[in-house]
């Protein structure tokens, strides 16, 4: 139904929206995420932390998603919605992958290094907070814009959770806090995936005249 509360209204990326600003923001957050992936994947493997490894791959996935957004920005709504749909599916795959990694760490009884988790977690939080700030003004745009903002919103929440996990590992001497946080990150990814896919499908169903 056209008036369904979950269906977004027709949105166009026309002259009134500053495409160049959004493109510059995407380049900035792309660089931030690519750099943090390199930092976190090394630290996550060295520390034996499932949550850090999950967060690192999230950075990698976001960098790829921002690259897709850069490619389609300024195109017709149909193409932007298609890109957002692909990103939503990717977020869902990431969530399932995190569940697999978390299960592996549970079975092997991994004890991560809390100090490394905490220090790298603070750096990741700062990077994502900057990305969140840069993307804030675009959070109510089309599905392509919303998907970029949702990715970053989930990353900030995930970074806060990693810091809590580091405190938990340090205080308990067990790996369970790290495991729990990794599972929460998987749920966030799956939830974000469902939101992005729903909005993208709604835009794809709009009449051709509204998707120019």
UniProtKB/TrEMBL annotation:
<keyword id="KW-0812">Transmembrane</keyword>
<protein>
    <submittedName>
        <fullName>Cobalt transporter</fullName>
    </submittedName>
</protein>
<feature type="transmembrane region" description="Helical">
    <location>
        <begin position="113"/>
        <end position="136"/>
    </location>
</feature>
<dbReference type="InterPro" id="IPR027469">
    <property type="entry name" value="Cation_efflux_TMD_sf"/>
</dbReference>
<dbReference type="InterPro" id="IPR050681">
    <property type="entry name" value="CDF/SLC30A"/>
</dbReference>
<dbReference type="GO" id="GO:0005385">
    <property type="term" value="F:zinc ion transmembrane transporter activity"/>
</dbReference>
<keyword id="KW-0813">Transport</keyword>
<keyword id="KW-0472">Membrane</keyword>
<keyword id="KW-0864">Zinc transport</keyword>
<feature type="transmembrane region" description="Helical">
    <location>
        <begin position="59"/>
        <end position="77"/>
    </location>
</feature>
<feature type="transmembrane region" description="Helical">
    <location>
        <begin position="179"/>
        <end position="197"/>
    </location>
</feature>
<dbReference type="GO" id="GO:0005886">
    <property type="term" value="C:plasma membrane"/>
</dbReference>
<feature type="transmembrane region" description="Helical">
    <location>
        <begin position="25"/>
        <end position="47"/>
    </location>
</feature>
<feature type="transmembrane region" description="Helical">
    <location>
        <begin position="89"/>
        <end position="107"/>
    </location>
</feature>
<keyword id="KW-1133">Transmembrane helix</keyword>
<keyword id="KW-0406">Ion transport</keyword>
<feature type="domain" description="Cation efflux protein transmembrane">
    <location>
        <begin position="26"/>
        <end position="204"/>
    </location>
</feature>
<dbReference type="InterPro" id="IPR058533">
    <property type="entry name" value="Cation_efflux_TM"/>
</dbReference>
<feature type="transmembrane region" description="Helical">
    <location>
        <begin position="156"/>
        <end position="173"/>
    </location>
</feature>
<dbReference type="Pfam" id="PF01545">
    <property type="entry name" value="Cation_efflux"/>
</dbReference>
<keyword id="KW-0862">Zinc</keyword>
């Amino acid at each position: 139904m056209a008036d369904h509360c979950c269906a977004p209204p027709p949105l166009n990326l026309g002259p009134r929206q500053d495409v160049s600003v959004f493109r510059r923001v995407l380049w900035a957050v792309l660089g931030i995420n690519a750099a943090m992936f390199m930092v976190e994947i090394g630290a996550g493997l060295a520390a034996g932390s499932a949550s850090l490894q999950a967060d690192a791959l999230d950075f990698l996935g976001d960098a790829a998603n921002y690259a897709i957004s850069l490619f389609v920005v300024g195109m017709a709504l149909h193409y932007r919605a298609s890109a957002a749909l692909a990103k939503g599916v990717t977020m869902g795959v990431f969530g399932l992958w995190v569940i697999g990694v978390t299960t592996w760490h549970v079975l092997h009884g991994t004890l991560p290094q809390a100090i490394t988790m905490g220090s790298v977690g603070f750096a990741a939080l700062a990077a994502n907070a900057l990305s969140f700030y840069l993307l804030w003004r675009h959070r109510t745009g089309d599905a392509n814009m919303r998907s970029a903002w949702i990715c970053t919103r989930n990353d900030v929440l995930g970074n806060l959770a990693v810091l809590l996990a580091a405190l938990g590992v340090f205080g308990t001497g067990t790996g369970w806090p790290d495991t729990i946080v990794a599972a929460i990150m998987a749920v966030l990814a799956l939830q974000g995936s469902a939101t992005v896919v729903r909005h993208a499908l709604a835009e794809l169903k709009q009449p051709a005249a509204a998707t120019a």
